[in-house]
Predict the 3D structure of the following.
Amino acid sequence: MRGCRIQCPTVSMAYPCRTPARHRESWRMVFLKDIIPAATNTVNTKFIILDKGNKSQEGKETTCVALVADETASVYFQMWGGECEAFEPGDIVQLTNGIFSYHKNNLLLRAGKRGSVEKVGEFTMMFVETPNLSEIRWARDANNPKNFVQEGVISVHSRIFSPLT
Amino acid sequence: MELPQLLQCKPFECENPLGISLREAFVLLQSQLKPPFSLKIPNPSEYSQLNLAIVYGILTQPQLAKTHLTHLHAIVTDGYCFFTSTLIKLVNDSFPRLLGTPRTQLLWLTSKLVDVSAVKIEALLVLLLRWIIGGDFSEPNLWLCAELLKMFLDKWEWLSNDPLVLTSALFAYLRLLADHYRLAGGVKLEALKRMEIDFCVRVLRECFGLCLKIGRDLVRLLQDVVYIPELKELWKDLLFNPDVFRVSGFSDISQLYCVRTPKHYFLLRINPEMETELRFLLSFVKWGSQKRYQVWFAKKHFSLPGSETVMVDIVRFICCAHHPSNEIIQSSVIPRWAIIGWLLKCCRRNYFQANLKLALFFDWLFYDEKHDNIMNIEPAILLILNSVPKYVDITHTLLDFLFLLVDNYDFNRREMIARCVSTSFSLLLQKGVVHSFEPLTSCCLLAPPIHQRLAIFIAPKSTLNSFAPQVITEGEVGK
């Protein structure tokens, strides 16, 4: 039931992506460079979509991987279902309660069942493509095996989406 | 009752905050929006809420719009300032997302606000002109173009007393006519072209004194429509019979050449979204990181078959209406000339390419140190010089085109134009925009005729003998 992920707090179905302002204020927004792999839906961030890959099927759902970035880093973002059609390169997206975790051996950011995404703008956001957090090797923290720490860089640039030069 | 909708909201898209405020005010006050209206004088906060509710009511309920308008007339205490400002904000941020009924209602409402001379109505009309997208010949866009024009003709009395709106409308419609006239289309398009011709001719014939305020770009626009019979007549009068315009003191087209076009005219053919994106690109994006932005910009604004025409307007906008601060000029932000170079590469058809180059050099042809701004001519010289190492064909094409303009733009005034171009070169050097023309003079990849012409234009003034009469400047007296 992935399609029902977006909470609809308003009365009208015409506004499916509205989130009450008071919730927004309490979010702790993070930059992409500060996200760490974890099994919890706690990532609140804003990014711009740089590129979109081909759609594929996972069970009954369509998925699509995109390269997204903010002014500190880039990462792969996995879109599900309707998200694949709704978002295009150049869109600025707000992710609420997202999850950054391994999915079939790839480290991906996504909304997950408890998170939500909404388009909040277009074009007017700065970004960098390096580092790409999905192209970093992470290891368990020796002091606290629950946590991940950065171990090394696999690739400076995305190996899926080539940078435009 | 189901709530009538104002703006289109796509899945996963954040709702526009003003759209929310308007709807919430409407829902809250719906019961007060029908007669008998309350006689109580609202406090400031109630007044704003009532205004917002009426905006929503008029835009979404055509059958009740007249009642809402009567209500508005009854409560208004600020000359419609808050009401019109709200519409301006809505149109500026969300015009493309306005649904069909609200669009029709908006045009009706605007004409009603003209009738009461609402405060800021000029700004609303100018903004609506900006949302007619250049090179977009789709039904909704041509509809906006035709409806606004009908309104202007309908409100002629009012319009002819408002120089800003009158000259803005003339600027916009001359530009649009140039694109529409080349199109073959059905009855509707033919009627639109007819109306555009009649409007432009009427403004120029009846209010020429006001049109002079547009300055030299009026000439540029007129030359693009001069093959239309009615405008050909007008053009001939402008050249050979300027007295028919009955403007005292106006006796020659060169008087128009001398007036630098005020900045606000260049915004008229750049829609608000495009303006935001161009200013962002030229204020924040670092050299080397512009590629993706360019791809997105092109996809959004250059994807229609007629879109190339907009590139010409963008070049005028960049040269004349977007002047970055010294801080930005010295930073690693992508410079204006590089964006213009990109536009030149995107522009494929000869006709638009020539217009684009004319747009780039236009202020060179009439440059007057007293009245002109060096920033208007800066992008062309930097594009010429910086293209030498890798894209010498651009340097060549641009210089060739500039010299072609000097010879042919206005044959009878070519000496004046040659002097202005020469002044442009020397001021660019004198003011330190460029340090030297040596990269050009020593470039063996430029054809000999280009070198010869260039040598004349960049020579120190005292050695010039081809541009009589000579102007003696202070610097030359002591030599």
Notes: DSSP finds 27 helices and no strands in chain B.
